[in-house]
């Protein structure tokens, strides 16, 4: 095609690639004389062909733009073939990824125009509706077993075909295509379709990140081999290249051998922005076991001994203490090596705290369906500042609230008031050798039930106490994470790394490390003594809305508005699990105390349960009618508590939910998950508040459930 050739030559001239231009011209002369006479003016801007003329120049310019786009794509290493406007002709710029005629171009981020230009027109815009409806007809008439699987194609094809029409400026065709077929899509894509319906012009697509992601990441469908063969045969017989091209270019079809999945099995797993997770994504080994607890003796207090004697049960304490000791001696076979990541040394105060913890544990209530926990609800009254985050210390002595007026407020919930350390002048007078030195350094004059911390310049969306209760983290809309001292109630560090709002932050169960996640779609791992993040976990296609450390601190779970949950390895920053199945942004995560399972809650009102080792969904708890903002397992993992915007706390039987799981190799290989039909069997109780959405849940060391939220008067 002469015009194309001229355009390519001109592009090479513009890019100063003289050699390539010469070679191409020599080659072209062999093709025919009239091509040989396609002369290029020295400036490389004007175009004179044998037939010369403005029309030619205009087409040449248009083609040049297309070729430029094609080359850009090759640079990005994405695709090298771009079709030209006439249906029969294809202009191909095949350049090895990353190289253009000897000039090496390094480009990390997919260039917007390059990404979008893959939408250069391939078919007749008026036929799009026909293509889509013929495929729809074929799928709806196929056998039941294949229909459920092939119906997954509707949504990604609909989006790509619509975007292709918009990109090529066939606005009226795009509008009628959208109106005709958007009603057929699954209900859980409604929000995405709303965004899509607002993209009606090519210019709108440039700035829309969500759409760019949809374009750059392949939409993953999991389909059985039989269904796939059926689809392929149909598209090839029909010569329906338009759809076949989209399938090949923009979809990743994960084919498995075996029975096709049922509608119910598929519905449980789909719904995220990029389809399902590839099965490969969940194959990596995960050390989900717990680290060995350091051994030290638990001294029995005299009062304890006497107290036990008075009650007439002197022998009860001893065996319990032994069982605590012996439990920690066995190394969990699924645990990571003790030194896999460096963890801070235990201080004396930490050891004292562990001793206290063990004593409390000895008095812990064993929960179960017959013995439900008492619930103590902390209601924030008159919280006109807008309560946006809550956390409670592990020993349940303090509670913190983050507010929309950018303040962080800390309360003591025990009779012991909050006190700051004395001034330096006063501290120098203290006898450092005295036994009660830790008491003496505190300034009684500062004692109060509430301390207010000022420093953020936007709403505070996440708060987290350090395990040793010396520090407090808060993250805010202002893009920073702040570390506060609970000795002086002042800000020690502001960590700047996120450029946008930070939605959540959490301390590692061992202290020292913490994680944050925000609107910039990445989670970051920090250490308290480093200004810069140690790891950046990138992969989510939308905001990272919540973050959680695994009990062994080697992994971090993140939930996102792209409706997926990812598990990241702290050691190397790799993503080791991707869980899809939620139909809305994820707002709460909780690991079971034994580290084997993860519970996730989202705006769809469902709690999903995951087996981390096998990378499988193993349960779905339905009951809430609004976003689930809080999830927590009881201390021994028998009960899962969930708190929601629907003003209820629900208790679920976790033991029953996780027993006799089908996690054989077959299930893992095909994703044929069989969720119990009725999650009501697992619901142990529902507790309504008057009008208080539940923002946080916490089990005390003795298994009393604490809940918190702000009373809303509407």
From TrEMBL:
Keywords: Nucleus, Repeat, Transcription, Transcription regulation, WD repeat. GO terms for molecular function: RNA polymerase II general transcription initiation factor activity. GO terms for cellular component: transcription factor TFIID complex. It comes from the Eukaryota. Residues 123-251 form the TFIID subunit TAF5 NTD2 domain. Residues 298-350 are annotated as: Disordered. InterPro entries: LisH, TFIID_NTD2, TFIID_NTD2_sf, WD40/YVTN_repeat-like_dom_sf, WD40_PAC1, WD40_repeat_CS, WD40_repeat_dom_sf, WD40_rpt. Its main location: nucleus. Residues 298-309 have a biased composition (Acidic residues). It is found in: Nucleus. PANTHER family: TRANSCRIPTION INITIATION FACTOR TFIID (PTHR19879), TRANSCRIPTION INITIATION FACTOR TFIID SUBUNIT 5 (PTHR19879:SF4). Belongs to the WD repeat TAF5 family. The TFIID basal transcription factor complex plays a major role in the initiation of RNA polymerase II (Pol II)-dependent transcription. TFIID recognizes and binds promoters with or without a TATA box via its subunit TBP, a TATA-box-binding protein, and promotes assembly of the pre-initiation complex (PIC). The TFIID complex consists of TBP and TBP-associated factors (TAFs), including TAF1, TAF2, TAF3, TAF4, TAF5, TAF6, TAF7, TAF8, TAF9, TAF10, TAF11, TAF12 and TAF13. The TFIID complex structure can be divided into 3 modules TFIID-A, TFIID-B, and TFIID-C. This is Transcription initiation factor TFIID subunit 5. It comes from Thinocorus orbignyianus. The lineage of its organism: Eukaryota, Metazoa, Chordata, Craniata, Vertebrata. The gene is Taf5.
